[in-house]
């Protein structure tokens, strides 16, 4: 197995971090710091802005130099064109959007649930083989998922599951990273006394999980859920194999096929890129703080 | 570890079998259930993970190895004939395989080295007391929310060959001739690496930032007392403290490079994406797996390439384990 040993880390409880500690925390950023950060932030956002600009211009404008830098008037027309791609009324893109929501939601809920169960057991329960099994979990975090696609293809071909959503959902129902993440969190955040108290009250393991573990684990479950959702929403290789663009695609598969179309103009392709990206960007704008905090906690850090 | 959840369920002192037999039996049954719960439920909790992982992680991995020893067509995946190491021998003589391997390394280096260096520097800057801190962080992380597919299409557009492409227009502004990005080896690999960098620099920045905030402030105070400037503090306090995190991100980037597929595939567009360019100049190992399996219909040879990827991942993991052990010792 690929032994990726994450730096032994105790994830912080997601309470607001005090403003002490850390590198230059005591220093204020100077003008050069701001200048660099502004340039980098612009570089980070520019491709997204540029895709909106390109999606709002026309084919003829796009072919001219200099490239367009301010939005044109064709955004709605291009959005409609991409929405009607492969058949009117969102036949492809609308269906793909619904499919992406279903897949990402199913994968997220199950990953969070199963990871919390296993993370709790590894963090707080004692059983034979626990340490060996945990080493196994950690060792498998870095196994490239790419390696599964060929046999999985053979299996779903045999089951006639091409274009069925379960073929993309089932292989992603839980991750080793999720188990590791929840274990790290629960070992420090879940007081053993709380479990003892539940035991004293006669609660069995399942009631304990429901009434004690879940409430404590909620912040970490939210973080893991968010990371999982982004990953599932953006997953590409396996959906591209298991689903077909003209059959029952997710957004990424549909977008890839639109981008590869011969008879479609660039501004319409960019409109497609905008449509598939906007839902997550809205989420980022609204929950920016939580997402940033989540990624920083999700970082398996030393 | 927990005491009560793991202690064997001894009967409460007052619960010795009394005259009331029914009561005693009920107690005994409850005791058995309790014992069953304590002994069994940990396994039930971890069961879903291990079942799913066995089905969708371990089994496919081994099966890929088995497939790589057979000649299988993607069109008739049920019929396979044993070829031993034939697929691997074929790879040895396959120039596209070697090119893809080389490209995977060069694109990996082109994207990871600058990316992680920039992320480290940016994390240092973000760690200062700043106005608009949240804005910078969210802006840096926005590309992470963008899918590979959308990002590759946007950058394909930015790196258009003609003068109208944004990248070429910027070069034109500084007096450089337009570049045929997709056609050249280095230019196309740079473009593909740029997509990767754009998507992951912000993410790695936040990982480094999180690690920096865990560095005890006293270390900096002590360094400041020694009269070090900010750069020296960064060099001699921050970087050493972040070493485990840096190793971690290097490994994650390496594994990520091994899986590089969507970026080159979509950057090349409908015509050349599957080949990684007319001359395979930006074909990667993962892309070659896809091409062999779903374009050339050679499932067995594709499996052999996939297994090579796995072996490289194992080597990366082993090197990582050695480095981490060294770091622990020196710490």
Automatic annotation (TrEMBL), chain A:
It comes from the Bacteria. Residues 1-26 are annotated as: Disordered. It is a multi-pass membrane protein. It is found in: Cell membrane. PROSITE patterns: ABC_TM1. One of its GO terms (cellular component) is plasma membrane. Keywords: Cell membrane, Membrane, Transmembrane, Transmembrane helix, Transport. The chain crosses the membrane at residues 32-50, 101-123, 135-156, 168-187, 208-230, 268-287. Residues 1-12 have a biased composition (Low complexity). GO terms for biological process: transmembrane transport. Residues 97-287 form the ABC transmembrane type-1 domain. CDD domains: TM_PBP2 (cd06261). Its main location: membrane. Belongs to the binding-protein-dependent transport system permease family. PANTHER family: ABC TRANSPORTER PERMEASE PROTEIN MG189-RELATED, ABC TRANSPORTER PERMEASE PROTEIN MG189-RELATED-RELATED. This is Carbohydrate ABC transporter permease.
TrEMBL record, chain B:
The chain crosses the membrane at residues 42-63, 105-126, 138-159, 179-198, 241-261, 304-324. SUPFAM superfamilies: MetI-like. This is Sugar ABC transporter permease. Keywords: Cell membrane, Membrane, Transmembrane, Transmembrane helix, Transport. Its main location: membrane. Residues 101-320 form the ABC transmembrane type-1 domain. InterPro entries: ABC_transporter_permease, MetI-like, MetI-like_sf. Pfam families: BPD_transp_1. Belongs to the binding-protein-dependent transport system permease family. Residues 1-25 are annotated as: Disordered. It is a multi-pass membrane protein. It is found in: Cell membrane.
């Amino acid at each position: 197995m690929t032994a990726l040993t994450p730096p032994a880390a105790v994830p912080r409880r997601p309470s607001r971090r005090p403003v002490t500690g850390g590198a230059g925390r005591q220093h204020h950023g100077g003008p050069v710091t701001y200048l660099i950060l502004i340039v980098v932030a612009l570089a980070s956002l520019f491709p997204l802005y540029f895709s909106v600009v390109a999606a709002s211009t026309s084919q003829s404008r796009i072919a001219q130099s200099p490239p367009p830098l301010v939005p044109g008037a064709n955004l709605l027309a291009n959005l409609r064109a991409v929405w009607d791609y492969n058949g009117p009324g969102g036949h492809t893109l609308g269906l793909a959007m619904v499919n992406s929501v279903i897949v990402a939601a199913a994968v997220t809920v199950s990953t969070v649930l199963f990871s919390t169960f296993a993370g709790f057991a590894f963090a707080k329960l004692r059983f034979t083989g626990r340490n060996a099994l945990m080493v196994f979990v950690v060792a498998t975090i870095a196994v490239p998922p790419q390696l599964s696609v060929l046999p999985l293809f053979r299996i779903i071909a045999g089951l006639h599951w091409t274009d069925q959503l379960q073929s993309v959902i089932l292989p992603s129902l839980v991750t080793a990273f999720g188990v590791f993440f929840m274990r790290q969190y629960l070992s420090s955040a879940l007081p053993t006394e709380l479990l003892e108290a539940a035991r004293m009250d006669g609660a069995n393991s399942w009631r304990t999980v429901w009434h004690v573990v879940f409430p404590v684990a909620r912040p970490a479950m939210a973080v893991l859920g968010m990371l999982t959702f982004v990953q599932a929403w953006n997953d590409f290789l396996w959906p591209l194999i298991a689903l077909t663009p003209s059959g029952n695609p997710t957004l990424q598969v549909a977008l890839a096929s639109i981008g590869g179309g011969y008879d479609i103009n660039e501004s319409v392709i960019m409109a497609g890129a905008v449509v598939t990206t906007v839902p997550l960007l809205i989420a980022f704008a609204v929950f920016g703080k939580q997402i940033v905090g989540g990624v920083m906690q999700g970082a398996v850090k030393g | 570890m927990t005491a009560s959840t793991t202690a064997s369920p001894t009967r409460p002192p007052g619960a010795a079998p009394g005259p009331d037999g029914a009561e005693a039996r009920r107690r005994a049954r409850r005791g058995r259930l309790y014992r069953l719960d304590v002994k069994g439920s940990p396994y039930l909790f971890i069961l879903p993970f291990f079942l799913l992982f066995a089905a969708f992680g371990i089994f496919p991995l081994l099966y890929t190895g088995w497939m790589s020893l057979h000649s299988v067509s993607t069109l008739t995946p049920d019929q396979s004939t044993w070829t031993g190491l034939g697929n691997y021998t074929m790879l040895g003589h396959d120039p596209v395989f070697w090119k893809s391997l080389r490209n995977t390394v060069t694109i990996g280096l082109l994207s990871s080295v600058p990316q992680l260096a920039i992320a480290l520097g940016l994390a240092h800057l973000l760690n200062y007391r700043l106005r608009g801190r949240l804005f910078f962080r969210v802006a840096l992380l926005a590309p992470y929310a963008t899918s590979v597919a959308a990002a590759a299409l946007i950058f394909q557009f930015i790196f258009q060959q003609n003068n109208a492409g944004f990248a070429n227009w910027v070069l034109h502004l500084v007096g450089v001739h337009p570049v045929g990005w997709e056609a050249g080896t280095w230019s196309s690999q740079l473009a593909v690496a740029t997509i990767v960098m754009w998507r992951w620099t912000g993410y790695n920045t936040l990982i480094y930032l999180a690690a920096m905030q865990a560095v005890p402030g006293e270390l900096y105070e002590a360094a400041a007392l020694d009269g070090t400037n900010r750069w020296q503090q960064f060099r001699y306090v921050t970087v050493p403290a972040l070493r485990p995190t840096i190793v971690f991100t290097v490994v994650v980037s390496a594994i990520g490079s091994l899986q590089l597929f969507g970026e080159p595939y979509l950057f090349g567009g409908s015509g050349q994406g599957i080949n990684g360019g007319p001359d395979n100049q930006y074909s990667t190992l993962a892309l070659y797996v896809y091409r062999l399996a779903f374009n050339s219909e050679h499932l067995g040879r594709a499996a052999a390439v996939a297994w090579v990827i796995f072996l490289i991942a194992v080597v990366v993991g082993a090197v990582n384990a050695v480095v981490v052990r060294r770091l622990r010792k020196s710490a």
